[in-house]
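User: I've been going back and forth on whether these two constructs are worth ordering. Before I decide, could you fold them both?

Assistant: Sure. I'll take them in the order you sent them. The first construct and its structure tokens:
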Amino acid sequence: MVKAIVIRETGGPEVMSFEEIEVGAPGPGEVRLKHTAIGVNFIDTYYRKGLYPAPGGLPFIPGAEAVGIVEKVGEGVVQFRPGDRVAYAGSVGAYAEARIISAQKLIRVPDDIDGFTVAASLLKGMTVQYLLRQTFKVTRDHTVLFHAGAGGVGQIAGQWLKSLGATSIATVGSEEKAEIARACGYTHVINYRTEDFVARVAEITGGALCDVVYDSVGKDTFPASLDCLKPRGLFASFGNSSGPVAEFSLGILSQKGSLYATRPTLGHYTATRATLDACAEDLFEQIRSEAVTISVGQKFALADAVACHKAMEARETVGSTLLTV
């Protein structure tokens, strides 16, 4: 038996229960993994609340990112062996001391990068990778608006955008977070609590506006984000921290400049072994080169997941958050 966070009904942080569970042995193509560090992401709250349906329904174990040591391998698994250090992102079930997982979802952790760094960055960093290098291929010629620039994803994005030479604009919710965003390399920072971000974007760009807007906030920043885009610009919605974007008529995209809109997910950009490995390796290379450094803002024990979620939803966390096992 091992300990895990179990959710039997959706709702607030208090629905998470710290319980003993049976893990068992891995089946064909599977690995039994002992976690050493678990990444916490805002998407975990979406599953907890029921905004996103949990795979397999209730009850379920939340969390989609972790680093661990392979304990056992199932029949047919040849790429990993007991003792290997591995990680994964995007597979719900991480808030546990150990779990069974498909070997196809695992990434080998490089020897030159520590486990806490990987646990704090894999999901967020691969999200930044597909957003900046695949959803819209950002270059030094582009102007980018990135909402929530001081968050875990935003901090990585700011550094990556700086390395690409792009003009980057971040929005944040406080002066403290503005300082964090500036330190991460954003060219301009807007405090949306004291400034109208649409007006400031127009001012910063001299009316030219942005080539792409990356939005993980959702309800509170839409449709204003569309007003920050130049004609034929791209609106990329990849999260809903303030609530989901309301349904809208496609006609608004033509009215505001023949705009594009997309709702990408990491799973679709890393659906094959080749695309998963390539995405992760691009992130690892950014870390190795020190173009991107990872900030672990806070750590909670696995048993304290309720307090962790409360702090995260109260916007009291900065950078990446880990659960320790």
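The second construct, handled the same way:
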Amino acid sequence: MTKAILIERTGGPEVLQWKETPVGDLGEGQVRVRQTAIGLNYIDTYQRSGLYPVPLPGGIGLEAAGVVDAVGPGVGNFKVGDRVAYAGGPAGSYAEQRVMPAAPLVKLPDNISDQQAAAMMLKGMTVQYLIRRTYPVKAGETVLFHAAAGGVGLIACQWLKALGATVIGTVSSEEKAALAQANGCTHTIVYRKENFANRVRELTGGAGVPVVYDSVGKDTWEDSLSCLQPMGLMVSFGNTSGPVAPVNIGQLAAKGSLFVTRPALATYTAKPQDLQATARDLFEILSGGHVKAKVSQTYALKDAAQAHYDLEGSKTVGSTILLP
């Protein structure tokens, strides 16, 4: 038996229950992981609310780090004692211990701690595919990144700066603006004080940007499109303010033959070689010191409900982990 956060129905943070549950038997291609740190991500709230369905009753969460303490049949690339991390399904990372497929796991280098890994695996690999594959950002380009002081945003600002890009970031407060700037964001826009589309046009001399990275969704959709250059790319990779309404595709032509994509990490890391390459790129940028994985908040795993209240209430900055 182990203890885990489980849900029996979807809803607000109050549906998260700290319960004892069976760990389960090892099957073909599976390992058992004793988890030491668990990543908190906005996608967890989507699983909890039902926006992204998960099996019920069951667990939520996609990211953690720990140690392999048992190996099932057919697993040749991991052994007991290996330090590992993951940032993908199946859901259920909010647990002290779990049995899961070996396929999503990556081995951790000695210079990456378990807490660092739990704080940045999902967010860091998300940044990797966004800025290296979805739209490969080049030195000298200016990009717009929403929620620049969030967990993904802070990693993105550092990485984009290392690439030689100019980053315009939106934030909700002056405090978060200072944090984003300290992590490589060139220009910050406090969206509660000024219209970010107008400011982006000012900062770019009316030209706009070639790409917008938007995890906010409904509230920023229209103005984000207005920030783009002709034939620019709108990368909508989240919806913290709610899902984007149905789109009139003709609007993309009217605003300059724009492109739109709704990417997901699971697609970009579906092939084992892509997962390992993505993680390797992340570990290299961390090892070089260009990106620092900082844990900004920690909560006990049993207090996951409070962590969700704080995350959805914009009371957190950067990366947050849950400790079993």
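Notes on the second construct follow. The radius of gyration is 20 Å. The chain is about 30% helix and 25% strand.
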